[in-house]
Amino acid sequence: VSAGNGCGHTLLTPHSGTLSSKNYPGTYPNHTMCCWRLQAPPGTSLLLAFGDVDLESSEHCAHSSLLLADPQTGTAYGPYCRNSVPSAPLLVTNSSTVTVLFNSTSHRSGRGLLVSYATSQHPGTHYTQEHISPDPPLTMCFSVYCPAGCKDIHGDIWGNPSQGYRDTSVLCKAAVHAGVIADELGGQVTLSREKGITLYESAFANGLRSKRGSLSEKRLVFHKVCCLLSPACDDVLEVVTFNASSWWHEVDMLGQDRAWVAERAALSTTGHSWAAEPGAEAAWLELDLGTRRNVTGIITKGSSEQHDYYVTSYHVSSSRDGKNWRPYRGSSGQEDKVFEGNADSQGEVSNAFIPPIIARYIR
User: Fold this and answer.
1) Domain 2-125 classification at class level
2) Does the chain have fewer CB atoms within 10 Å around its N or its C terminus?
3) Which fold has domain 241-362?
4) pLDDT at 223
5) How far apart are the first and last CA of the chain?
6) How many CB atoms sit inside 10 A of residue 231's CB?
7) Is 263's pLDDT higher than 70?
């Protein structure tokens, strides 16, 4: 729970989360406060990682401060500001409840704060990797826990799921981009540090745009758990039959017919694609995979031939018999998930299904 006018990007879940002051990493505003109440499941304790604490210096941190309190034990941590920073980047508490209080008066500078937390079941954090391996070999596999809420934190990523990412990328933000965790939940990720490559290509995936980047000494490559058990889990699934709510029967200026039928929806099809009848509402495209399959994601692309057509957002439904349909709600399970699609007709956009869909039919 968070309250106050000084709260920035915040995502709090029972097992992990991320919180920041308003405008972070820009200068936090004057005369604001925010109070976050972190509550973990009974029997666990909270671990807090200080990603950044940059509050203007003042005696006893009187003007701007970060203060943490453990109501179960009566223990207080802080106050913290620029001249009184936490002694360690990771604070291990003995409580399942912690109150985080940030306040500011008049000041001129300071980025504010960025803090993440996880329960004692998940001690890893994404702000520092050095404690995992200060001098890793050329290729090294390791695992780290990413808290929920990394998608919108400050920092850049370079690369894409197929190539890997520059080692200067924000690790857990890159994991969301790669589709190995859902931002709403966070989770354990497994990755390797491998030899860097000359150029990292930009890509839009899972609601994030990565940057195009140059050579790095090392790169981060994420591994899906299912791929460690079965390398075929990233294979492109064969579609036996395409079906659609409607299709466009185009007659061009020369009077020639062209059918934008469902079969043309395959990603590798050259020329025009599938398109619903103009003006059609609640249009859908249906894929029959022939048998029940484990579907871990989808890639979409527009039709760049003559017409600048593309889908900007979409819902997904699945069925095991082609009659009874279930909307995909993602990891939150509260409402139908809206996937962010394409912004032009040229590029491909990837979206991961976390958890995967087990079905024969996908709409």
Assistant:
1) mainly beta
2) N
3) Jelly Rolls (2.60.120)
4) 86
5) 36
6) 9
7) yes
Residue 135: band (very low, low, confident or very high) from pLDDT cuts 50, 70, 90 = very low
What phi, psi does 33 have (nearest 5°)? Answer: -150, 155
The DSSP code sequence of 243-270 is EES--EEEE-TTS-EEEE-GGGGSTT--
Superfamily of domain 141-223: LCCL-like domain (2.170.130.20)
Cβ atoms of 106 and 63 within 8 Å: the answer is yes
The number of beta carbons lying within 10 Å of the beta carbon of residue 213 is 21
The tens digit of pLDDT for each residue in 306-353 reads: 788 999 999 999 999 999 999 999 776 778 999 999 999 989 999 999
- Provide the residue ranges of all domains of the chain, joining segments of one domain with +: 2-125, 141-223, 241-362
pLDDT at 227 over 70: no
Do domains 2-125 and 241-362 share one topology? The answer is yes
Q: What is the pLDDT of residue 38?
A: 96
What is the enclosing helix (H) or strand (E) of 204? strand 204-205
CB 219 within 8 A of CB 171: no
Task: Judge whether residue 235 has pLDDT over 60.
Answer: yes
Whether residue 297 contacts residue 350, with contact meaning beta carbons closer than 8 Å, is answered with: yes
